[in-house]
Amino acid sequence: MGSTGDCGNGKAAGGAGAGGLVVPEIKFTKLFINGEFVDAASGKTFETRDPRTGDVLAHIAEADKADVDLAVKAAREAFEHGSNVAATQERSRVMNKLADLVEQHADELAALDGADAGKLLTLGKIIDMPAAAQMLRYYAGAADKIHGESLRVAGKYQGYTLREPIGVVGVIIPWNFPTMMFFLKVSPALAAGCTIVVKPAEQTPLSALYYAHLAKLCTFDIIIQAGVPDGVINVVPGFGPTAGAALSSHMDVDSVAFTGSAEIGRAIMESAARSNLKNVSLELGGKSPMIVFDDADVDMAVSLSSLAVFFNKGEICVAGSRVYVQEGIYDEFVKKAVEAAKNWKVGDPFDAATNMGPQVDKVQFERVLKYIEIGKNEGATLLTGGKPTGDKGYYIEPTIFVDVKEQMTIAQEEIFGPVMSLMKFKTVEEAIEKANCTKYGLAAGIVTKNLNIANMVSRAVRAGTVWVNCYFAFDPDAPFGGYKMSGFGRDQGMVAMDKYLQVKTVITAVPDSPWY
Q1: Cα 175 to the chain's mean position, in Å?
Q2: Which residues are CB-contacts of 211 (< 8 A; sequence separation ≥ 6)?
Q3: Helix (H, G, I), strand (E, B) or coil at 233
Q4: What does the record list as coiled-coil region(s) (predicted)?
């Protein structure tokens, strides 16, 4: 094989860019199909842009139906004919090796996500990359522990079940956490013995292509890569209506795992139904409530609530964007929340002092500003923020509204930006009713010192994850997914393996058995 650059035909750009901004070297820009970096069949490319400036970072090969067909064919061949990841106990070793490589390249990968998605570089290094490696190792430990059950069947029969890999899995991931979303889906699918075709978001394809490189069985500069056989992992950057639609409707894809909007989730379900009735798992939007009771430490509650909605510039599905505060501490909370928002530093995500980077692209930037205008027009009171900031790029100030009613658009629709809606409540029962006044049910937060209240509310709120006196407390062992229109199926935990396995029952006649 050639050099690292030859394998991906990337743009060898690194160092300082316009305005002195750090621009990471981009090595991989082609599709990754059957163990090789290749151009799109059409020869088309698309731009991925730096949200700090709006400038083009790289031109990425644009997958279409023809490329998805090739990737699925490679995945099917690997699954059916001797992929050692699908057929042997090497999965655990390979996944642990891949985790090691993620850690070894953590700085470079965090920089790619920082430049591509506007994510904070420091947090990428200390949270995203270690969490990705942890996810891989968690499921590496599960790879050799997949088994069925012995059955007690009536009559002269022996019965047992097998849990077998479902086959070729299509993975469609969003742009807000490019690294974590990649391994959230790929790790359990690999552990189950499946082969995979990943379509990363068109806004953030860079790290997914790098992970394909790390998984490739080849040698670069005497560095032995992880050893994932050709065809087991394929990465096809492209757009939803073309590459995504081709993957979700493909007759030879056995399952699709998707994280994104409810609108696209519906389209994927329809494609699955109209094609081969493939298995579908969906992690969709959220409009999560943060419920703060009178007995809470106000400073802690303000800090937690600010983190819950402004972290990752609000581009997180579980953002606690509806903050309900009990009337006894409401006024104090509002005052301190505004002060906290004003102290959040918005700026270059590569600056260690920055709290919040830019929205991922111009479309999302304009979408958030549109919702802010809707909030004002519907009668909510803007206390702070609400405006773009900076001379260039897609930066928005942390924004807080009060006088928000449950029926208002900003209280009902997922904004996916740094916008907090502050609301008051009197009783526990009222808080539960308001918290459940949403079509979504992904997460919720509760802040109280009263264990009885915490237990009552956590059971009454219809959400897949409830955090008490904390937020964003994710762990590979903790299942994650939604109620209602936030989707179905679970990521994380051993239960996530169920999406990538199917159960086979085997019944054998034993007519001469002495046990009957």
Answers
A1: 8
A2: 102, 179, 182, 183, 186, 233, 235
A3: strand
A4: none
Residue 440's φ and ψ, nearest 5 degrees, are -100, 165
Identify the pLDDT of residue 21: 77
Answer left, alpha or beta for residue 64, where phi above 0 means left and psi between -120 and 50 means alpha.
beta
Catalytic residue among 283, 315, 397, 414: 283
Distance CA 146, CA 168 (A): 18
Q: What is the pTM of this model?
A: 0.93
Q: Is 283 one of the catalytic residues?
A: yes
Residues 244-271 pLDDT 10s: 999 999 999 999 999 999 999 999 999 9
Identify the three-state secondary structure at position 320.
Answer: coil
- pLDDT for 203 beyond 60: yes
Exposure on the CB side of residue 478, measured as CA atoms within 13 A: 9
Q: What is the pLDDT of residues 146-173, one digit of tens each?
A: 999 999 999 889 999 999 999 999 999 9
Which residues touch 187 (CB under 8 Å, ≥6 apart)? 95, 135, 136, 138, 139, 140
Domains, the chain, ranges and CATH? 31-284 (3.40.605.10), 289-475 (3.40.309.10)
Nearest to 183 by CA among 257, 121, 111, 282: 257
What secondary structure does DSSP assign to 141-162, as a single string?
TTTT-----EE--SSSEEEEEE
